[in-house]
Design brief:
Blueprint: H1 5-30, H2 50-73, H3 77-102, H4 108-125, H5 128-154, H6 158-179, H7 182-194, E1 199-204, H8 207-219, H9 224-233, E2 239-244, H10 245-262, H11 264-284, H12 293-312
Helix pairs in contact: 1-5, 1-10, 1-11, 3-4, 3-5, 4-5, 5-10, 6-10, 6-12, 10-11, 10-12, 11-12
C-alpha cells in the first residue's frame, strides 16, 4: 500500500464525497437551473462530428498543457496563482449557487461573495483544511460546465464521446507519468514554487517526525519562513498523499452524463465503481513510486458504463 490505511481511507472518502456532490450539482443544472456567470453555452452552437469535436478538444488540451509548461519554464508564479484564484472562485461559485438555490437564494453575487474568501485562503494562505474542503466543491462546478459543453458539441453522440475521451486521457496520463515525467514536474512545481496543488493533498508523518513538527511550530509560531528553514535543518520527513484534480473531475463528468441518459442509479453505479477502482490502485501501489490514476479509474468507469447499458437502458 502506497500510504497508510488512515490516509488512504481519507483520500478515498474525499473522492467518493466529491462524486456524490458532483451528481447533486449536475442533476440540479440538468433539471432547469441555468449555469450562472455567463457559463451557459450559446444556443447557436451546431452539433459537431465526433472526429471534429474530439479533435478540437484534444487540440485545446494540448495547447493548455504547453501553455502551462511555458509558464513553468519562465516561472510566472504570480500569473499562475491569479489564474488559479479566478478559476477557483468561479468553480466554487457554480457549486455554491446550486446549494444557495436549494435554500431559496438565487443570487449569483452571494455565491461569489462566499467563494471569494475561500479561494483567497486556499491560494494565498495555504490552509490544508480549507484547501481540501474547497476541493470537494470545485470539481462538481467545473464538471457541470464541461457536461453542458459536451452535450452542446456532441448531442446524441455524447456518450460515445466520453468513452473515447477517457481512453485518450488515460493514454496521456500514462505517458505523462511513466514516460515524460511531466505530471511529477507539474506537481513539484505547484507544491514547491506556487505552494498550491490542484487536487487533494494530505501531508502526514510518523510519531518521531510529528514530535519534531510540533516542537518547531511552537518555536516559530507565526513565522512561516523560519518554520520552513527549521524543517530543513531538523531534516523533518513529511509524506504526501495526493490525488490530482483531473482524476476527480473526469469520473464526475462520466457519472453526470450517464445520469442524464440513464438516471440516478446509473450515475451512482459509475461513481461507486470509479471509487472501487481508485481504492484498488491505492492498495496495489508501492511506496515511493508514481502511478497514473486515470487508467485504473477509467477501467472502473468502463465497467460502470457497460453495466448501465445492460441494466438501465
Amino acid at each position: 500500500m502506497k500510504h497508510n490505511t488512515r490516509v488512504t481511507t481519507i483520500l478515498v472518502i474525499m473522492f467518493l464525497v466529491t462524486q456524490l456532490i458532483g451528481l447533486f450539482i449536475v442533476s440540479s443544472y440538468s433539471n432547469g437551473l441555468e449555469l450562472p456567470f455567463g457559463m451557459e453555452p450559446p444556443e447557436e452552437i451546431e452539433e459537431a462530428s465526433l472526429a471534429g469535436g474530439l479533435g478540437s478538444i484534444v487540440t485545446a488540451f494540448v495547447i493548455a498543457v504547453l501553455l502551462f509548461f511555458l509558464l513553468m519554464k519562465i516561472n510566472a508564479k504570480t500569473f499562475i496563482k491569479m489564474w488559479y484564484f479566478l478559476v477557483t472562485v468561479l468553480a466554487l461559485g457554480l457549486t455554491l449557487f446550486v446549494i444557495l438555490d436549494k435554500f431559496g437564494v438565487e443570487m449569483q453575487l452571494v455565491a461569489l461573495a462566499i467563494a471569494f474568501p475561500l479561494a483567497f485562503v486556499k491560494i494565498f494562505r495555504r490552509n490544508i483544511y480549507v484547501h481540501n474542503l474547497t476541493e470537494l466543491l470545485i470539481y462538481p462546478g467545473i464538471a457541470a460546465v464541461f457536461i453542458s459543453f459536451l452535450n452542446n458539441v456532441f448531442g446524441s453522440k455524447v456518450i460515445l464521446s466520453i468513452v473515447i475521451l477517457l481512453f485518450i486521457i488515460s493514454l496521456y496520463d500514462m505517458w505523462a507519468v511513466w514516460h515524460s515525467g511531466f505530471m511529477q514536474k507539474m506537481a513539484e512545481f505547484q507544491m514547491n514554487n506556487l505552494k498550491v496543488f490542484t487536487g487533494f493533498f494530505i501531508p502526514y508523518a510518523d510519531k518521531k517526525n510529528k514530535a519534531k513538527i510540533k516542537m518547531l511550530k511552537d518555536k516559530y509560531k507565526g513565522d512561516d519562513e523560519k518554520l520552513e528553514a527549521g524543517f530543513k535543518k531538523e531534516k523533518v520527513k513529511v509524506n504526501l498523499a495526493i490525488l490530482g484534480g483531473g482524476d476527480v473531475i473526469f469520473p464526475i463528468i462520466t457519472a453526470g452524463l450517464f445520469y442524464q441518459v440513464y438516471g440516478i442509479w446509473s450515475g451512482l453505479l459509475i461513481a461507486g465503481l470509479s471509487t472501487v477502482a481508485l481504492s484498488g490502485l491505492f492498495v496495489l501501489a508501492k511506496k515511493g513510486k508514481y502511478y497514473p490514476a486515470m487508467p485504473f479509474i477509467t477501467a472502473g468507469l468502463y465497467v460502470g458504463m457497460a453495466l448501465s447499458w445492460g441494466l438501465f437502458r
